[in-house]
Amino acid sequence: GLYENLAVLDFRSLYPSIIISHNVDPSTINCDCCSQEESFVSPTGARFCAKRKGVVPQMIEEVLKERQAIKQKLKGIKDKASNEFRELDANQWALKILANSTYGYLVFSRSRWYSREAGESITAWARKYIQDAMEQAEKSGFNVLYGDTDSFFIQYEEGGEEKVREFQKAVNKNLPGAMELELEDFY
C-alpha cells in the first residue's frame, strides 16, 4: 500500500556501536576481573569485561570518531563536485565500511579474531534494541510498519513530527554508550 506521514528511524552504525558499548571482543569474553553483575551480559548469556577495553572496540571507536570528524568537514564544503569533497566523502565511506565489516571478520571462522560468542552476542543485542524500540514506538502511539536489521518505519499523525523527535530522544536516553537512534527523515 501507499502510506503518508512516515518517519524512518535508524540506529547509527548499529553493530559497531554495540561492539563499543558492550566491549565485545574475543579477549574480553568471560574475564576473571568482572563478576556476572559487573559484566556486559548479552542476550545469549555471553559475558564481556566491563573494566578492560578490548582491542576491537578501541579500534572501532577511533574509526567512528574519525568518520564523524570527516562528516563535519563535509558539511562545510558547498561545492559537492570539488575534489576536496569527493576525497573526504570517499574517506568517510571507507571508514564506514571498515567499521561495519569488523562484525564479519569476528564471525569469519578463519579470521585471527574469530569468536562465535561475540558474533552471536552482537546480533542478539541488535535484535533486542530494534525490537525494544519498535515496541516503545507502538506504546507511544505510532504504527510500526516495518523493521529490519538497524532501522524501522513508523507512521505518525499529521503534524506529529515533534512527537516523533520526542520519541527518538526518549529512546536515545536509554541506550548505552555509543549507541544512537537517528531520525533519517520524514516522508
Helix content: 40-55%
Run of helices and strands = EHEEHHHEEHE
Distance between the termini: 14 Å
| Arithmetic mean of pLDDT | 96
Class per helix and strand makeup:
alpha+beta
Strand order of the largest sheet: 4-5-1-6
Radius of gyration: 18 Å
Pick out the low-confidence regions: none
Largest sheet: 4 strands, antiparallel
- Total number of helices: 5
- Beta percentage is 5-15%
How many DSSP-defined strands?
6
Task: Characterise this structure.
The structure is a single chain. This protein has 187 residues and is of the alpha+beta class. Helices cover 49% and strands 14% of the residues. The protein is built from 5 helices and 6 strands; from the N terminus they run E-H-E-E-H-H-H-E-E-H-E. The chain has helices spanning 14-21, 55-75, 83-107, 116-139, 161-173, and strands at 6-11, 40-41, 47-48, 143-147, 151-155, 181-186. It has a 4-stranded antiparallel beta sheet, with helices on one face. Strands 2-3 form a two-stranded antiparallel sheet. Strand 4 and strand 5 (151-155) form a beta hairpin. Helix 1 crosses helix 2, helix 1 packs across helix 4 and helix 3 packs across helix 4 (116-139). The longest helix is centred in the middle third of the chain and has 25 residues, at 83-107. The protein is globular, with a radius of gyration of 18 Å. The two termini are 14 Å apart. The mean pLDDT is 96.
